[in-house]
Amino acid sequence: MLFRKAILDQIAEGAVTLAFRRWTKPTVKAGGRLRTASGVLSIDAVDVTGTEDISVEDAHRAGFTTREALLAELDARPDGTLYRIAFHRAGEDPRLSLRDEATLAKVDRAAIADRLARFDETADQSWTEPTLRLIASRDGITAAEIAERVGVDKLKIKVRIRKLKELGLTESLTVGYRLSPRGRSFLDET
């Protein structure tokens, strides 16, 4: 579930606690969590609804100044079932503090190495270290550049880099990627 920057800012302030989406199948479920640029959201409810059931207050809680503005956005994507998603901000994205941990204990370093080895094993090729080294070579290196250099499809490399990001080893920039302090520390000792 994606949010525009203006809505993300309102989520961070606690002003937005609802979203409306048309989906063929929901992408979130009640009780689940969703990481966003504004932090982790806890999904409280996902309910099928109709446009006639959306109130002015609902529109405001979804970040829209009027009900009509919300309905206009929903009408831009008319296919699928309309869902009302209630959520609350549950805290910061844990990857943010994780990636700043530049001092790694032996046990942390070993856990990262084990995880990377499993990534390589399931992919039937060693991709983690070469990818980390390419990202370390230049801040802002793009997925397309990395994909070309390692001979892997761009979408596949993006999925792989997200796995590295989950471990706090990389950061996404406006364009491209860079190693986090944690990633640099890990790579320096490898």
Keywords:
single chain, 190 residues, alpha+beta, Archaeosine Trna-guanine Transglycosylase, Chain: A, domain 4, Arc Repressor Mutant, subunit A, four-stranded antiparallel sheet, two-stranded antiparallel sheet, 9 helices, 46% helix, elongated
What does this entry show, briefly?
The protein has 190 residues and is an alpha+beta fold. The protein has helices spanning 5-13, 56-61, 67-75, 94-99, 106-123, 128-137, 143-150, 154-166, 181-188; strands at 18-23, 33-36, 39-48, 81-91, 170-172, 177-179.
The name of the CATH architecture of the largest domain is Orthogonal Bundle
Largest sheet: 4 strands, antiparallel
CATH class value of the largest domain: Mainly Alpha
Low-confidence blocks of residues: none
Separation, N- and C-terminal Cα atoms: 37 Å
* CATH fold field value of the largest domain: Arc Repressor Mutant, subunit A
How do the strands and helices of this protein lay out in sequence?
Layout: H1 5-13, E1 18-23, E2 33-36, E3 39-48, H2 56-61, H3 67-75, E4 81-91, H4 94-99, H5 106-123, H6 128-137, H7 143-150, H8 154-166, E5 170-172, E6 177-179, H9 181-188
Antiparallel strand pairs: 1-4, 2-3, 3-4, 5-6
Helix pairs in contact: 7-8
Describe it for me?
With 190 residues, this protein is α+β, with helices and mostly antiparallel strands. The chain has two domains: 5-92, Archaeosine Trna-guanine Transglycosylase, Chain: A, domain 4 (Roll), CATH 2.30.130.30; 96-188, Winged helix-like DNA-binding domain superfamily/Winged helix DNA-binding domain (Arc Repressor Mutant, subunit A, Orthogonal Bundle). Helix content is 46%, strand content 19%. It is built from nine helices and six strands, in the order αβββααβαααααββα. It has helices at residues 5-13, 56-61, 67-75, 94-99, 106-123, 128-137, 143-150, 154-166, 181-188; strands at 18-23, 33-36, 39-48, 81-91, 170-172, 177-179. The strands form two sheets. The protein has a four-stranded antiparallel β-sheet with strand order 1-4-3-2. A hairpin with a 4-residue loop joins strand 5 and strand 6. Helix 7 crosses helix 8. The radius of gyration is 20 Å and the shape is elongated.
